[in-house]
């Protein structure tokens, strides 16, 4: 026999007139508990209430009305509640009759708890999540209210007009977005090599998600409204920045890019010429240093010649890219990322040569050779079969050749290491600036303009937790609790309001970067 009973009652039930209560009765077998979720009242008879997906679970009598005993044994679970709303706001609730499993229950034999909940808060909340695997009563109640909200109230004319004005324009806007999204998806194998092309594809996917979600909800939710406001701010900032650049930049953008690239090239040449001498007083191996310096100078000059021939193409490309720049500052950031990759491609090539050819092969060969020869001087060698270092007896000629090779490799290492250090630092600066642009573009896409105002005004849509307190008026025999919704912390609110299709930037793996730098892997 069930002895525990939970009754969820809307806080505004006390001010309503007598009527039938409809909702759901759920039996929690895990805790041997029966829960009465009372959603609303209605004066409609039983025959008409059957059209609703909710069940008729009881009757509520206002003490100001004539109190009668309402029992319906056609329903296996039935409850009758009497309410009274006094002038000093001391609402009173009394259990008159209870029927469980077609049996009338003596009120003195059960432990009943009445929980007064905020119906509007549970209906409008968008951040409330289940805190338990099973038995989360408020989460069940929230899902029940939100799934039945269209049945619980009739739509006003204003709401119908708003849904019509919102649905039809978005419906017609969705078709060109779907068409453009299909084209960019087919071109994705080519677009993924460009920051701008990849951003255009992701931007169309985000727009498509927003439009489909608005059509499904027939209104703006936190996520969709926040992303729509972020798009408006992004476009406004893009137009402002574009006008600002056009006002201050008088020359052709391609010529400006080539001038800055030339400064970078000249700086790199001066740096390599400095390395080919006596950098910071270090006496490097002259032959190896001279060959490596000429090797890198050749590739720098080769790429600068290639950039010079690309000037007509850059003029045409800038005209196309400026068209995308009007769509928002995030598009301009993607354009800057592509131009940065184009202008600094020679430094990347040099770094790849330095890492793969000079460092990874030469330096690793030197490092492994020095390690093995150092064991030789100690009279040991590595046993790869057992993965350990064993003792070994070497002959005199072997020790002589090992000592000579160890000396040569040891004195050649600074020359190799100095070039790798310089170009690795240049590569890290380039990667750091690219990562900054990526994160800046991400945060501009999720600007919490709309969400911040909702959170600041303590809107019910930003509530995420429940606060339960003892009700001011308690009746002997059962407990009355009062529930209020609590606004989520700002960090949690912002994180949950990010659009579903926006790709979050990966976290920085410092250990992996450090390991790649030490062992000469590509960054």
Task: Provide an overview of this structure.
It is a single chain. With 523 residues, this protein is an alpha/beta fold. Among the domains are: 4-152, no CATH class; 251-309 and 344-448 and 502-519, no CATH class. Helices cover 56% and strands 16% of the residues. The chain has helices spanning 46-49, 119-124, 137-147, 149-152, 157-186, 188-191, 195-217, 222-248, 253-276, 286-309, 311-325, 329-343, 345-377, 396-445, 449-456, 490-496, 510-519, and strands at residues 4-10, 19-28, 33-42, 55-62, 78-84, 92-100, 103-104, 111-117, 380-383, 388-391, 463-470, 478-487. The strands form 2 sheets. Strands 7-6-5-4-2-3-1-8-12-11 form a 10-stranded mixed sheet. Helix 5 packs antiparallel against helix 7 (195-217) and helix 10 packs antiparallel against helix 13. It is elongated, with a radius of gyration of 36 Å.
Tell me the span between the first and last alpha carbons. 68 Å
- SSE series: EEEHEEEEEHHHHHHHHHHHHEEHHEEHH
Structural class: alpha/beta
How would you write the strand order of the largest sheet? 7-6-5-4-2-3-1-8-12-11
Helix content: 55-70%
Number of H- or I-type helical stretches = 17
Alpha carbon gyration radius: 36 Å
Topology, number of strands: 12
Q: Could you say which overall geometry the principal axes of the C-alpha atoms support?
A: elongated
Please give a handful of descriptors for the protein shown.
ten-stranded mixed β-sheet, elongated, 523 residues, alpha/beta, two-stranded antiparallel ribbon
Q: SSE layout and pairings?
A:
Layout lengths: L3 E7 L8 E10 L4 E10 L3 H4 L5 E8 L15 E7 L7 E9 L2 E2 L6 E7 L1 H6 L12 H11 L1 H4 L4 H30 L1 H4 L3 H23 L4 H27 L4 H24 L9 H24 L1 H15 L3 H15 L1 H33 L2 E4 L4 E4 L4 H50 L3 H8 L6 E8 L7 E10 L2 H7 L13 H10 L4
Parallel strand pairs: 1-3, 1-8, 4-5, 8-12
Antiparallel strand pairs: 2-3, 2-4, 5-6, 6-7, 9-10, 11-12
């Amino acid at each position: 026999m069930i002895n525990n009973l939970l009754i969820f009652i809307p806080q505004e039930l006390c001010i309503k007139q007598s009527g039938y209560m409809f909702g759901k009765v759920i039996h929690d077998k895990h805790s041997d508990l029966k829960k009465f979720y009372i959603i609303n009242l209605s004066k409609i008879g039983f025959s008409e209430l059957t059209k609703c997906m909710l069940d008729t679970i009881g009757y509520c009598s206002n003490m100001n009305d004539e109190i009668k005993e309402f029992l319906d044994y056609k329903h296996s679970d039935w409850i009758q509640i009497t309410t009274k709303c006094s002038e000093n706001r001391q609402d009173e609730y009394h259990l008159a009759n209870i029927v469980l499993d077609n049996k009338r229950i003596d009120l003195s034999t059960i432990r009943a708890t009445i929980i007064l909940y905020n119906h509007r808060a549970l209906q409008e909340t968008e951040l409330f999540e289940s805190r338990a695997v099973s038995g989360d009563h408020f989460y069940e109640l929230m899902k029940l209210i939100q799934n039945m909200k269209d049945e619980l109230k009739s739509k006003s004319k204003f709401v119908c007009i708003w849904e019509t004005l919102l649905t039809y324009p978005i419906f017609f806007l969705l078709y060109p977005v779907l068409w453009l999204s299909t084209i960019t998806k087919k071109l994705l194998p080519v677009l993924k090599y460009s920051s701008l092309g990849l951003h255009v594809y992701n931007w169309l996917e985000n727009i498509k998600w927003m439009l489909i979600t608005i059509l499904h909800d027939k209104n703006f939710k936190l996520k969709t409204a926040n992303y729509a406001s972020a798009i408006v701010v992004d476009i406004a900032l893009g137009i402002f920045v574009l006008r600002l650049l056009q006002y201050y930049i008088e020359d052709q953008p391609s010529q400006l890019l080539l001038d800055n690239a030339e400064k970078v090239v000249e700086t790199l040449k001066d740096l390599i010429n400095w390395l080919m001498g006596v950098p910071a007083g270090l006496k490097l191996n002259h032959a190896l240093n001279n060959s490596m310096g000429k090797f890198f100078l050749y590739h720098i000059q080769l790429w600068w010649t290639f950039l010079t021939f690309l000037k007509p193409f850059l003029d045409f490309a800038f005209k196309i890219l400026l068209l995308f720049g009007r769509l928002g500052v995030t598009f301009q950031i993607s354009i800057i990322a592509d131009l940065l990759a184009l202008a600094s491609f020679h430094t990347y090539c040099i770094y790849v040569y330095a890492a793969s050819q000079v460092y990874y092969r030469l330096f690793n060969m030197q490092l492994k050779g020095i390690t093995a020869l150092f064991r030789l001087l100690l009279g040991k060698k590595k046993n790869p079969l057992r993965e350990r270092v064993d003792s070994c007896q070497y002959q005199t000629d072997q020790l002589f050749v090992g000592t000579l090779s160890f000396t040569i490799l040891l004195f050649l290492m600074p020359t190799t290491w100095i070039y790798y250090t310089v170009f690795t630092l240049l590569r890290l600066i380039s990667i750091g600036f690219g990562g900054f642009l990526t994160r800046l573009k991400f945060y501009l896409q999720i600007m919490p303009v709309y969400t911040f105002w909702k959170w600041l005004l303590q809107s019910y849509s930003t509530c995420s937790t429940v606060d339960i307190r003892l009700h001011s008026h308690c009746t002997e025999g059962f407990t009355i609790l009062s529930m209020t919704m609590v606004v989520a912390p700002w960090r949690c609110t912002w994180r949950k309001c990010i659009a579903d299709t926006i790709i979050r930037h990966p976290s920085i793996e410092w250990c992996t970067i450090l390991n790649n730098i030490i062992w000469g892997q590509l960054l």
